[in-house]
Design goal:
Elements: E1 2-3, E2 10-11, H1 23-35, H2 68-78, H3 115-122, E3 132-133, E4 146-147, E5 155-157, E6 174-176, H4 198-203, H5 210-217, H6 221-232
Antiparallel strand pairs: 1-2, 3-4, 5-6
Helix pairs in contact: 1-2, 3-6
């Protein structure tokens, strides 16, 4: 739970490392910490190398942007289209999208293993939730829409896989569930790129995800291939 700097209210952190509650605050934070641009939302400059005396050289004291650019950046991110699964020009459908052994297309009427069911049976879907519903929005196109990120956007204790970063009440073992949509476009995996295949990334899971890792390891070779093909086409 984090503070929304615009309202002062407590909200669920879902962006960044889960320390940011919404895209407007994410944008203002990025403007300050990535580009050194202050706004009414984040009016205080970061001290260069920790030396606040150097702020005396600031040629433009006060806010550098009145949030107009930040609003536009927020809007740009808000209206980005979701990735589409491999071999398909359609947006993600719901839970019924399947891959089968020996079949590379987005669906098949037959096959011994329905990979989306394996995904749930192994326990992947407990955190990598296939489908979510958006909430209220002033924009009709974004209001109460079903989308398929394959994430719950929440923190989980990942044991030895944790990145060691402590922020607010989040410990170094806790990490936000990475969305899996667009996974087919990624070449290195996990937060530090240590895994060079989807299977390696699964086997590195720990903590709350240890059970899912072990159930994946217990699958037959054909079942593993079906599940990995499904994930590799997201």
């Amino acid at each position: 739970m984090v503070t929304d700097v615009a309202t002062g209210e407590v909200a669920v952190g879902r962006f960044g490392w889960s320390q940011v509650p919404n895209l407007l605050q994410f944008s203002g934070d990025a403007y300050l910490n990535e580009m050194g641009i202050t706004t009414p939302m984040f009016p205080n400059e970061n001290c260069p190398q920790g030396n606040c005396a150097m702020l005396a050289c600031d040629p433009v004291p006060g806010a550098d942007d009145d949030l107009v650019d930040v609003d536009l950046f927020r809007d740009f991110m808000s209206f980005l289209a979701p990735p589409t699964p491999g071999g398909s020009s359609r947006p993600y459908p719901g839970h019924g999208w399947r891959h089968f052994v020996g079949h590379a297309g987005p669906s098949s009427p037959q096959g011994p293993y329905q990979a989306d069911r394996l995904f749930a049976q192994v326990g992947c879907a407990d955190c990598h939730v296939p489908s979510l519903m958006s909430g209220p929005s002033a924009v009709t196109a974004l209001r109460y829409k079903r989308f398929q990120p394959y994430s719950d956007f929440l923190l989980h204790d990942m044991g030895g896989l944790g990145d060691g970063i402590e922020q607010g009440q989040a410990t170094g073992r806790e990490m936000r569930t990475a969305p899996l949509w667009g996974l087919r476009l990624i070449t290195t995996f996990l937060h530090d790129g240590r895994a060079h295949s989807i299977e390696d990334a699964i086997l590195a899971h720990d903590g709350q995800a240890g059970g899912a890792r072990d159930r994946f390891s217990a699958l037959s070779p054909a079942q593993k291939n079906a599940l990995l093909a499904f994930l590799g086409a997201l």
